[in-house]
Each structure stands twice: as structure tokens, then as C-alpha cells.
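Human: Here is a favour to ask of a fellow structure person. Comparing notes only helps if you start from a blank page. I am asking you to supply a protein in sequence and C-alpha cell form. Write it directly below this note and I will take it from there.

Assistant:
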Amino acid sequence: MDIIEVLRDLIFYLGLMTPECFESLVVDLNFSNLPCLKLAISKALGLAIVVGSSLVKLPQVLKIAGSGSADGISFIGVLLELVAITFSGVYSFSNNFPFSSYGESVFLAFQTTIIGLLVLTFSQGKLKAILFGALYAGAVWTLMNPVITPPPVLWYGQAANIPMILLGKLIQIMTNFRNGHTGQLSAVTCFLLSLGAIARIFTSVQETGDNIVILTYVCSSVVNTIIALQVILYWNRTAEATTLKKTQ
């Protein structure tokens, strides 16, 4: 079997290149074709982000569930992040952007919802957690229905993501600063969210050209990086706080 044909089928199936770019980059090895090269890198990076996002918050979920505590995690911060992720995903879907440019929103929304449910369960009880889950499911259905939620509303929702992301993450940043440690925040999740947001700036420029989406990821990368740096800065204090809590 011709390896080029196999590669062609795989690349076309994943939507990583157009036929013209495949001929230029793979067949002719013309790496001076910058538009095709940037698009291929963007598509591959976007696909990697989508795949990685399916597990990016799993360490955080396991850490909360395993400890039976949501200590140091702000529910308001989680809620604002969930709203921002949801608006971003629905907005991109309604604009028919390539799935590789926003697919992580689906997985992140699911995982963030689980985190929200766990935080409420351990802090305010299961009843409020169930109510939160039901309300969120209803909100998603409403946003996905173009009859109820017209496209202009989604644009304003996407624009509102910027202050929501900043506020939600700043609340978490201030919580960490006030506590002097990062509590049950997962270091792996924090680092991956920071790197993913930075990479999304490039893919959004290449695949959507939507300024409001690009600005959203710029702001997200800044605050996520600050939290990642806090994890490093407070590493020893967090370990001490966790050990002290277990002995109490």
C-alpha cells in the first residue's frame, strides 16, 4: 500500500490540510509555502488541544473527589469559567467555525460542570448540586436553540466572556493569595490550561480571524499563566497546608 495514499486519507479525514496544501507540503515537500504550513500547524495544534482537553481537568476532578474537599476552590470562579466556556463553544458552533478551533469547549464544559457539582456537593450539599446541574442543562439547551437565542445575543455573550474569564480567574488568584496556598487546585490542570490558552491564540488567528475570540484567549492565557505561577510559588505551602488538614 502506498504510504502517501494512506497519509493522504488520514490527513483529509482529520481535516488537517486542503488537497492543494497536501500536494505542496507532503508530495512536493515545498515548506516555503507559508500559508499552507501555518494552516497545517494550526490544524494539528487545534486537534491536539481538543484531544488533550478531554482529560485536562481530570486531575482536578480526581483531586477533589479523592480528598472529599473543595478547599481553596472558588465556586463563583468555577461558575464564571463555565459560563465563559459555554458561550465560547456555542458562539463558535453557530458561526460554523472548524471543530478544531473550539472543540475543547465541549470537553472543558463537561469537566468544569463536574467540578462545580463536586464543589457544591462538598460545601453546600447534594440538593444544590443537583439543582445546579439541571439549571445548567436547561441553559445550554436554550443557547443552542436559534429561535430562542438569536446569533447577536451569542456575540454579546462571547464578548462578555472577557470580563467573566478575568473576574473568575482573578477571584481564584485572590483566593490563593489570601490563603497563602493553592488548596485543592491541580498543578497539572493549571499548567495545561495555561499552555492551551496560549496555543489557542495562534489557532484562532489562523482558523477564525474573529477578533473577539482572539482577544478572549489572550486574556485567558494571561490569568491562567498567573495561576500556574502561583502553583509553583506556593508549592511548599500548599503541601504543608494539605498535610496539616489531614492531621486535624
In short: The radius of gyration is 20 Å.
